[in-house]
Amino acid sequence: MINPLSQKIRTFHNLDINDGNLCYIGTNDYGLSEVEKILKNHPNNEINTCHIGVSGYYNFDIAVFRKSERIIIFDHNPQQVKFMKQTLKIINISKNREEFLNNMISYLNIKQQEHSIVLNEKEFNRGKSKIETMSFMINISEDDSYNKIKFEDNVTIDAIDQIIYELERKSSWLSTDFSFNYIRKLSLKDHIAIFCEDIKSIHVFKRINNILLNNNIFVDTLYLTNVKGYLLDKDKLLYDETLKYLSNDKTMIIENTGTLNIRVNYIKI
What we know:
This protein is α/β, with parallel strands linked by helices. It contains 10 helices and 9 strands. A 7-stranded mixed β-sheet has the order 5-3-2-6-7-8-9. It has a two-stranded parallel ribbon with strand order 1-4.
């Protein structure tokens, strides 16, 4: 099934972006439990609600908390976008969480083999391989049992272990059959659109805003993690301008300014 609105959103995919950074499966933000409480307790009386966010699986967590009817994910990292699109494909063919895990492990094993091939080619040829590989950044958890695993800063870890942990992590969209099926139903209806773009591209998000307004889609939540912290001062003005098109006075904006916080109409809750 192809949804016309999602198809239109995907046309904004920017093929000219080549910023291949590490991918996030979950999130590297702290404060998730507090954010979860606010998202679940804050009333949501709108219809045709949409979650918009960057990065990885945490967007699915938020959509489950808020019972979002649509999800839009964008990111400036083409590899992140590629990983999330592949995730949707695997969700669609997986009838349950166990099938999803097995299918993801098969996919990630292939990516790890490709990564080894590239390392060998670079070692012997010192050339650039045509194979695009994926490396993953660590997840952050407030679960002490997970944090007993000690990782050095800025190192990649086994992606399969991260996926397995998502099935065990409380409040993850993969932690229950209900939450997995909720995201799967959205995906099967093609109510999840993913594309590559830079948040500074105001003209793109202005057009997306018009599409959402014309289709009576209400942006309920907006997840931007710590994107603003990586921007130059002059680019932060563009970030703020984009926010005007991605949110309204009732949108819950989830940002990381040292720890996650939520603000509605630019007022912190």
